[in-house]
Design a protein that fits this description.
This protein is mainly beta. The chain contains five helices and 30 strands. The strands form four sheets. It has an eleven-stranded mixed β-sheet, with no helix packed on it. Strands 2-5-10-13-16-19-22-25-28 form a nine-stranded parallel β-sheet, with no helix packed on it. The protein has an eight-stranded parallel β-sheet with strand order 4-7-12-15-18-21-24-27, covered by helices on one side.
């Protein structure tokens, strides 16, 4: 396979079968989702050198000396609450780069000092108001990131920048909830190839009010374990990158994807995805919101108030590898209708609940354009 993950055969053999499953799914995301997306191979003839030159430089990449892992001074605390999705919450179609992430709390990457703490923070660590130039392993759990700029200068090919998976003891899952809020995930310091092959976040966490951009893929709920709930709310994913030919050596892009969410051990467990803007604007788009049972069953997922944009299909639902899905609800979402269209289902019974989903029409109240019918298998 032309696209690799930068993990040696020796290490992969040592990690064993679970690692192989996790890394294979990462490769699927970085190198292609062809089996799951009808007509997924799109034209991807972008000029890498021109795109690299056009991307912003982004300021003093390694000059600040930064404090310790808990270096916040507590400013903007009122803005740090993720919100509960109530009447005052912005809907996905109201989000942009000015009201999400650091800009939403009056900060930017250049204003933050450089983080000098561990790449694998201790359990319960609180990391605030710093610029992080490496990847992060949050698998110790109970970790909070708030008002940070995650702006890596290097990343293992095809690997996530931030993860809750412990690849050293593969493939452990964070034992308690990780929270990331009011932060930027910024891939602009990476080469085009490295950024396009990377996923900004992979694992299971509460993600609120973040802006993720200049990566190949945004958020992946994958290797999510069997216990923790997750809320993905108020995030804007956009400016996704394509590299190469998605049918051969290139990447495939998902703004948001779920590859497993197993509720067998805890039937009340829930994944809530609400009020986000997912724009899969990459030339190598799979889609804005891609649900696939590649890594395990997926149950108890509710998506509401999201704006789905970009190429490919805006919403894909795919059953594979003998893993089932169920108890899926799509309520009051908006679809751009670009690319191949709003939604498809491939395998399985389809959506359990499908209500009040519309084409996005900015000229209409609440952006309610033409109704979008539930896709059928």
């Amino acid at each position: 396979m032309a696209c690799t993950l930068g993990v040696s055969e020796e290490k992969l053999a040592r990690l064993g079968m679970v690692a192989a499953t996790v890394l294979a799914a990462l490769a699927l995301s970085a190198c292609g989702d062809d089996a799951a997306s009808p007509g997924a191979a799109q034209d991807a003839s972008n000029d890498a050198s021109e795109l690299d030159a056009a991307r912003a430089e982004g300021g003093d990449d390694a000059s600040a000396d930064g404090g310790d892992d808990a270096s916040a001074d507590g400013a903007n605390d009122a803005a740090s609450e993720g919100g509960d999705g109530g009447a005052g919450a912005r809907r996905g179609w109201e989000l942009d780069e000015t009201n999400t992430g650091l800009a939403g709390v009056g900060l930017d990457c250049a204003s933050l000092s450089r983080y000098t703490g561990a790449e694998k923070p201790k359990a319960g660590a609180v990391i605030e108001r710093v610029r992080i130039t490496t990847g992060l392993d949050l698998s110790n759990g109970g970790i909070t990131l708030d008002r940070v700029c995650i702006q890596p200068t290097s990343v293992g090919q095809g690997m996530p920048v931030v993860t809750t998976t412990d690849y050293d003891q593969c493939c452990g899952v964070a034992p308690s909830t990780v929270t990331i809020s009011n932060s930027d995930f910024d891939g602009s310091k990476l080469s085009l190839r490295d950024a396009a092959m990377a996923t900004a976040f992979l694992g299971v966490a509460d993600l609120r009010n973040n802006y993720l951009h200049d990566f190949g893929s945004g958020i992946a709920i994958f290797n999510a374990g069997t216990e923790l709930d997750a809320t993905v709310e108020g995030n804007y994913v956009g400016r996704l990158l394509g590299y190469g030919d998605p049918a051969t050596d290139g990447n495939h892009s998902d703004a948001f994807t779920v590859r497993d969410f197993d509720t067998s051990a805890r039937p009340s467990r829930r994944l809530v995805v609400r009020n986000n803007r997912f724009d899969c604007d990459s030339p190598n788009a799979t889609g804005a919101f891609f649900i696939q049972t590649y890594g395990g069953p997926i149950h108890n997922l509710t998506m509401s108030g999201n704006l789905l944009q970009g190429g490919g299909y805006q919403l894909g639902l795919n059953e594979m590898n003998g893993n089932a899905y169920g108890e899926l609800a799509a309520l009051d979402n908006r679809f751009s209708g670009t690319g191949y269209g709003p939604a498809y289902v491939q395998g399985g019974a389809g959506w359990g609940t499908w209500e009040e989903n519309y084409r996005d029409d900015p000229s209409a109240p609440e952006h309610r354009g033409a109704p979008v019918s539930a896709p059928t298998p």
